[in-house]
Amino acid sequence: MAKIGTGRMLPLMKLNRFYARQLWNAVNQTSRSATTLAVGEPTGPSVKTDIPGPKSKQLMDELSELQLTASVQLFADYDRSQGNYLVDVDGNTLLDVYMQISSMPLGYNHPDMLKSMDNPHNIKSVVNRPALGVFPGADWPKKLKSVLMSVAPPGMPCLNTMMCGSCSNENAFKNIFIWYQRTKRGKEMTFTPDEMESCMLNMPPGSPSLSLLSFKGAFHGRTLGALSTTRSKHIHKIDVPAFDWPVASFPVYKYPLEENVRENEAEDRRCLAEVEDLIEKYKKRGSPVAGIVVEPIQSEGGDNEASPKFFQELQRIAKKHGSALLVDEVQTGGGPTGKMWCHEHFNLDSPPDIITFSKKMQLGGYYMKPEFKPQLGYRVFNTWMGDPGKLVLLQSVVEVIKRDNLLDVVQKSGKKLQQGLYQLQKEFPALINSARGRGTFLAINCSDTKLRDDVVARLRKKGIQSGGCGEIAVRLRPALIFQEHHADIFLDRFRQVLAETK
Ligand code: PSZ
Q1: What is the mean pLDDT of the segment spanning 91-108?
Q2: Which residue's alpha carbon is nearest to atom 20 within ligand 1?
Q3: E-assigned strands of 336-420?
């Protein structure tokens, strides 16, 4: 068993002696060199079997007795995975630039996160999971302030915690509708008998006709309300009833950006004009746009970027029409763009109204301006309302981000990755194009879907776990501890894959 920091035995952990040694070294090191950021990692990928290998296939059969396994790629060994490397049950070691759909901020088995469980108080916060809306623990307000508020986007002093990305959006949408109706009424507390009765029948005025505007290519989750704003793929939506809410075009840029400035500015204007038209149209229809919901970089939809100017204008349009602006940072939040929050790159006139988060933040939730806090209890509420156990993990994550300057690491590794992608698209212009992104939150397009799927599959054979998004993009979503030498490995394998395609 590993001994750690305090000198006590690590409970709950089956670590082999090698990793235990590395952990011990990591915890006791004070200087933060490149190697301490990714402690005890393998020196590179190694692939021994097909992926999925025989053990993965056996487990797949076992799991298929219970559920559909169509999306399962492999079974992982989370005891042996370390840092940037995912180890599977067949002993294959993959450099993971996808990180559980962008949700592992510090890679696998980070010593500081493990160490946080070597503490009886923290273990009790996992064991005794409260209904936070009714019985929060004594340290909850302080913890929210010292952890979540310490990385809050500027100008957003209020907060709700939730479970996942979808339910963060779902509940944030409710906050927007409640805010919108309160603004109309002038006061929240006074509901008419008609409102109280009609809402029980899903009818106006109690269940008012209001809408949220989202964008083509958007992904905001799969729960029923969120799904009405999701517009990325039919497989996400088909057969499920949806609200008749407006959908505007999201900019589709020509790359490289610096050579297509005029066209891309015209594209911004086209999309913004559409937003404004839709707001007018839905107002006339009797279903006013209470809020605009947007990702800072459309992720599932294909890593589609929009300019800071687009977002500045979008905010101005929202304000002009009395609509709230919700920026969905579920995938972009937590540091991968080189800032804690991607919208901080946009230089907005003022903070957005609501920012939702999940993934790298360990638990879901949203920051909001004070006027978005409902004034009555039980309006935005559920059993758990987040999870103190996850906040313990986030505390370690935030401490490590600050201590190890991980946003700087992201910027440095991101630059290397991005330059490497630019170089590769110059070498293989018939195969790949439109490298883009911020920090290590990067993507590149393949010439068609078949090639993209093929590239992702062949990268895996060479020991790189990447992911696709949209129709033709390969996306990179490494952990914040991804360093320049990892970028070299990725770029080298990517070059090999492309050279073999030529
Ligand atoms: O297929 C899926 O359901 C996927 S694959 C990646 C995601 C979902 N991302 C989740 C996500 C997101 O990227 C944005 C911008 N907003 C909301 C969500 C929903 O988060 P979860 O999956 O936690 O409900």
Answers
A1: 98
A2: 165
A3: 354-357, 364-368
